[in-house]
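Dock phosphoric acid mono(formamide)ester; give full complex structure.
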Amino acid sequence: MKKTASRKKTASRKKTRPAAAAVTGLRKLHLLGAAELSEGEIRFLLSTAKAFAPYVVRGETIPLLQGKTVVNLFFENSTRTRMSFELATRKLAGGTLNFAASTSSVAKGETLIDTAKNIEAMRPHCLVVRHSSAGSPWFLASSVGVPVVNGGDGFHEHPTQALLDVFTMEEKLGTVKGKRVVIIGDIAHSRVARSNIHVLRKLGASVAVCSPPTLMPPLPETLGVDYAERPEGLLRDADVVMALRIQLERQNKMQIPSVAEYSQFWGLSRDRAKLLKPSAIIMHPGPVNRGVELDPEVADGANSVILDQVFNGILVRMAVLAAVCNPDGLRGWLSKGGRRG
Ligand code: CP
């Protein structure tokens, strides 16, 4: 009896994921979605980003991507994501190539896969892809032989945004475990909301979403979050409020009566922000529509951490690029306590 119990115990131990502290990298070559990341992998990326921070603040380079080229393959507009992937690559001593669909041969009808295969033939070491089609990074990852990182796919996932958001929350609040995060906005069309929900739930935060009913995904309870149609009842208990942009480009036709009405009922106005605890932080992934989802005084106020999110994007994207492009080098660097060389 004892032996059987012991064998059962060993078998169940084998099936268990390694503890967060024991995870020293990613299981896969790619970073495609937050849904696929384990708690240990998320913790590994966040702690790596933290280890890089003092070097970036001092303006020092960490040569983990020396001799490597990262291609930013952006089929959709971007300011923060593209620039911070570029900066992250440079801070790791790598080279970048920036692709913009509007000035490429995509404008002459070249397909995504042909574009990617032609770029792959130039021997890059990583593709960061942003595309309006949900699932396109997975499609590319199964078709090319280099690591693929998702820089945002349609309304599906934006995993590095969620990682930088959680990094910022923990920088300000210590931990997200047990904290209440309220996400207000166009939840149905938001890859940021989806990826944040995956990461926050895995790290033990409690999440509530709020939007007009037409901008709520069907069956929000299946996301494992609370939801409400109006924000007032959620704000008093929030440790974090994340406002999202109304994404008119992803709606077939306007799913709210008017932008002014959205702002009146769901915008984080000065008066609504007064309902928050003094310690609550206010976030937005950008770009902000001032006066719509956030009043300018709230966006620029003392509780806003929006520009911290932007800086932390560099650290988190460095961690992701190092983990997918040079996992052995990163492990070695971390095992030496983050010393250079
Ligand atoms: N947050 C974000 O993805 O911003 P960009 O569209 O500017 O990259």
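Observed: Residues 78-81, 152, 161, 285-287 surround phosphoric acid mono(formamide)ester (CB under 6 Å).
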